[in-house]
Amino acid sequence: MALHLPPFESFYEEHRDAVLRELRRLLGSAAAAEDAYQETFLRALRAYGRLRHAENLRAWVLTIARRVAVDQLRRRERPPEAAEPALDRRPAYAELGELADGLPRKERAAVVLRYGYDLSYAAIGAALGSSEQAARQAASSGVRRLRRRMQ
Amino acid sequence: MTVSPTLDNRFREAAAAAGLLDVAYDLAETPVGTLLVAATDRGLCRVSFDPQLEREAEWLAQAFGVRVLRAAKPVEAVRRQLDEYFEGTRTRFELPVDLRPSAPFSREVLRRLARVPYGEVTTYGALARAAHRPQAARAVGTVMNRNPIPIVLPCHRVVGADGSLVGYGGGLDRKRLLLSLEGAIDQPLDM
Prior knowledge:
Helix content of chain A is 70%, strand content 0%. Chain A is mainly α and 151 residues long. Chain B has two domains: 5-87, Methylated DNA-protein cysteine methyltransferase domain (Double Stranded RNA Binding Domain), CATH 3.30.160.70; 104-181, Arc Repressor Mutant, subunit A (Orthogonal Bundle).
């Protein structure tokens, strides 16, 4: 079959509502879907001139949309920016920071992020460029070191 | 679920800003009706009267590439200069044009046409002579009839040897209106 791609405008008008619907279904929030919408059609536009088929363009663009959604969900899993210190019985960040000042760099970071900012070990590991397990170890050996020092 | 105009526009402008389009087009409201104006990265490539959008998009895709999208920014200068022209404050268009789809003879004739000044008229024969094809007045007529960029490439300034308006791709009423706007002929009766 001869390749006859419609002008991008026609393609876009025909599939835009379906793409937005699919992104809403995958991502939940309207704002997230709208970001992914633009990215989906920009990716489609980049590839459009090189397409070697003109069939089933709906399936093609929905595949792109799903990939964009997955990329966005992966980014969401990355550690959040350090949140405000939790207001609870644990030492406030300032105190904790001072307390932990003498620790080796990695242990200090792990202790402050875990007990000052309440981040999960997975997030701390990602922030420090190491594994969840290594983050857990760094925090616990930091705590042991502090205990020994305070005794 | 339908896409909001804001979201729709954001994508269109992002696509244009990223340089991903073969052709961008938009509509312009003018005293001679709604015009479609289209541009590639090389310049203005199309002005059309009474546009049928799907047919126009197909033609643009065939001529310049399938990445055709309606987007305002790339044709903003064209719209502004057209506004100024119709307000009577602009007598020369300063716009690069992209005539790639036209045959060499057509391009040559259209380039000569572009030099016919505001408010003046020339004839098919004179244009043929200027293009070094003195026998080709009729062919020049065909080129005028198929001018992809009317108004900006002023085929309305080309008339018969006896001064009659002869014809116009957008209809004789429009030719009359454009020439009277430029002061080349007296005010048309109605329009």
